[in-house]
Every structure is written in structure tokens, then in C-alpha cells.
Amino acid sequence: MAVNYCTVCGQPMETRDIDGTARRACTSESCGHVHWGDYSVGVGALVMKEERILLVRRAQEPGRGYWTNPGGYIEQMESIDQTIIREVLEEAGVHATVKSIVAVRDQPRSIHNVYIAFDMEYTGGEPVPDGVEVDQAGFFSLEEMKEMQVADFTKWLIDVAMQRRAEGLTADANPVVPGNASVFFRT
After folding, report:
1. Domain total for the chain?
2. Which of 49, 117, 146, 172 is most open to solvent, judged by the fewest CB atoms within 10 Å of its CB?
3. CA-CA distance, 170 to 155, in Å (whole number)?
4. Does 97 lie in the same domain as 21?
């Protein structure tokens, strides 16, 4: 869907060539806002407990009936590490902390999606589905998963969790950017 009116000042938008790409831009000379595109950032959790991985069964589309790792989309003013902690607790009733970022999926499409997968430390709680997005939750072994309808992308993430070759990106507790409200991750 085209952006017809500026989200900053409300004036009409037009299509202009900006650095070789057709973009929607505000017609007001005093505003000049450019719509750079539509994006979404998703996060997913790989939580292990005693060689078993936390999975939830989707109760809604997309993917209704499929088992996936807990996850969701970031809120506007929420950092990605806080998002995944919240999503695991909301969907599965499990407490977990972020250890590292272990995988990223880039999915260019009309709403460009980036998905960031976290290795998480189980800290407590028994899996309980939220009853809205998820109708079942639990920790499962690879053997048990063979009999389950696990989503293909989740199968890839499980492989990442089981076949890890590195620790991934961890939160930088002392970034060299003083006073910045950003969250930084590094090797």
C-alpha cells in the first residue's frame, strides 16, 4: 500500500528518485520527510533445559497447529533483549535471560522482516500456554520432536542451537559510546 500522506506533517506524498530508488516523499518544502519503507523486527528464543528445547504450539494463524520457538515482534520503545524476555514469559510462562544472539534471518518482502534469534538461559517456571497465541507449551527432546508438527524455520533454529560453533553476539556492558540509550551486542 502506498503512503499517500506524510506521517510527519500530513501533506500529500509523491514518488521521487532519491539516490537511485523510487521513494515516497513529502511535497512540503518545509518538511521533506522521506518514507524509507516498511519494516518489522521479530525475535525468537532458544531456551534449553536438560537437553530439551522450549516450544509452543501456535493457536492462531499464521502457523496454527505448528510447534515453534517462543517469539514475537518488538514494541516501538522496547529493546530487542527485553522483547524476547517478555515474549517467552507471555507465551510460555517461563523465565529466561539473554545469553547471546545466535542467528539472524533477513526476509526482504513488502514489509521487510528481520528476525533475531537468542540463546537464552532458563531461570525458572514451568511451561504454561497463554491460551491466546499459544495453546500448548513444553520442553521437548529431539526424539519427541520427530512426532510433532514443528515449523520448518523452527527446525533450522533448533539445528542452530544444537550445532553451534561459536558463542554468538553478547551484550556489550561497556560500549565506547557514552550516554547512548542503545543496546549493543558484539563478539
Report:
1. 2
2. 146
3. 23
4. no
- Are 92 and 12 found together in one domain? no
Share of the chain above pLDDT 90, in %: 78
The DSSP 8-state label assigned to residue 3 in this structure reads -
Domain with 53, as residue range(s), is: 39-170
From the list 155, 10, 152, 182, the residue with the least C-alpha distance to 81 is: 182
Judge whether 71 lies within some domain. Answer: yes
Residue that is written with C-alpha cell 543496546 in the block: 183
pLDDT in tens, 88-128: 999 999 999 999 999 999 999 888 999 999 999 999 999 99
Residue 174 · residue 161 · CB < 8 Å: no
> pLDDT tier at 1 (50, 70, 90 boundaries)?
low
**Is there a single domain that holds both residue 52 and residue 4?**
no
- Grid coordinates representing 45 are 528464543
Q: What is the pLDDT of residues 58-85, one digit of tens each?
A: 999 989 999 999 999 999 899 999 999 9
Pairing status of strand 21-26 against strand 71-73? unpaired
pTM above 0.85, yes or no: yes
Q: Are residues 132 and 79 part of one domain?
A: yes
Q: Scan for cell 545469553, then name that residue.
A: 99
Is 113 a member of any domain?
yes
